[in-house]
Amino acid sequence: MLAAAFDGTDLKLEERPRPEINRKEALVKVKAASICHTDLRIVDEGHKKLSGEGTTVLGHEFTGKIVEVGDGVERLSEGQDIVVAPNVGCGKCEQCLSGNHHRCPDYRAIGISIDGGFEEYFKIPSEAILRGNVVAIPEGIEPKEAALTEPLSTCFNAQTACGLEVGDFVLIIGAGPMGIMNLMMAKYGGASKVIVSEVIEERQERAEEFGADFVLDPTEFPLQEQVEEITRGRGADVSIVAAPVGQAQLQAIKSTAIEGRVNFFATLPQGEAVEEFPSNYLHYNQVYVTGTSGASRTHFVKTLDIIASGRLPLSEVVTDEYPLEEMDEALEKARKNESLKVIVRP
């Protein structure tokens, strides 16, 4: 079978034997896999959870159909369409026992420390089945939509952490694929107005297409002043930073209302720090700041239900599709500003 595997310096196509399963594992025919910014970052910089031995198949945003099930597996059956939450916890620590396997200090990551979905057949590890990481897909969801369950669930996690409420003014900084999905989720969650801040023209246009009520360029006028004008001097109730830029984090805090909530959604590049952090602004305005990463199984399941509702134009987030044989072209396309999510079909 064909697989796209990372050898420590590059992502290359290679022929591998179809995986064999034991009695506690299952085999999936991959239907669609989405390229994440994390995949691009691994190709460029590596990852701390890579073993450094041999090659690893990347891809943690994917869906497929179960084609083989070990006789010791319960709840799963051949013919099921499934998605897999990629972070597999130890099952024993406080975070895992509270249902937050994505925060397990010793988690193993599908597509990083375990072979992922950029391959024709994916072997589900026994621990992923045991921990409940495998979730059946409701009827009516297209494969390219199902493949976006994981990234969309991280938006669900972020907005839950922010306590987004009906009627909130929401500011989203960054209109890349994750900014657009946060925009969609904010509108789904009842935001009265969604403001998007973006410096790149192609992405400003994308934000307008996906229903942003206001699209601002922070290089034209100070973002805080623009947001205060829109919110009648109050500031945003919720601000989500979906751009990996320290300055954007500072802009978000200063554009947020008294008792507002800020989420640092995007990861800053390694070595980048926020200078002159506005501690007194947080103190006097009682602004709550949180960071989120990944999503729990509960977030994952609820996100699937949201997708199944048909109320999000999720398929429109997929701007490009490629066969696995054209993985290099797919990666290159995923780096371009005009692209949102790029799907690979093994």
Automatic annotation (TrEMBL):
GO biological process, one term: small molecule metabolic process
Listed cofactors: Zn(2+)
Highest taxon of source: Archaea
Keyword Cell division: no
Family matches, as InterPro entries: ADH-like_C, ADH-like_N, ADH_Zn_CS, ER, GroES-like_sf, NAD(P)-bd_dom_sf, Zn_alcohol_dh
Gene3D superfamilies for the chain: Medium-chain alcohol dehydrogenases, catalytic domain (3.90.180.10), NAD(P)-binding Rossmann-like Domain (3.40.50.720)
UniProt signal peptide: none
Domain spans labelled Enoyl reductase (ER): 8-344
GO molecular function: adenyl nucleotide binding; anion binding; oxidoreductase activity, acting on the CH-OH group of donors, NAD or NADP as acceptor; zinc ion binding
Family statement drawn from the similarity comment of this UniProt entry: Belongs to the zinc-containing alcohol dehydrogenase family.
Name assigned to this protein: Enoyl reductase (ER) domain-containing protein
Pfam families linked to this entry: ADH_N, ADH_zinc_N
PANTHER family: L-THREONINE 3-DEHYDROGENASE
Keywords: Metal-binding, Oxidoreductase, Zinc
Keyword Metal-binding: yes
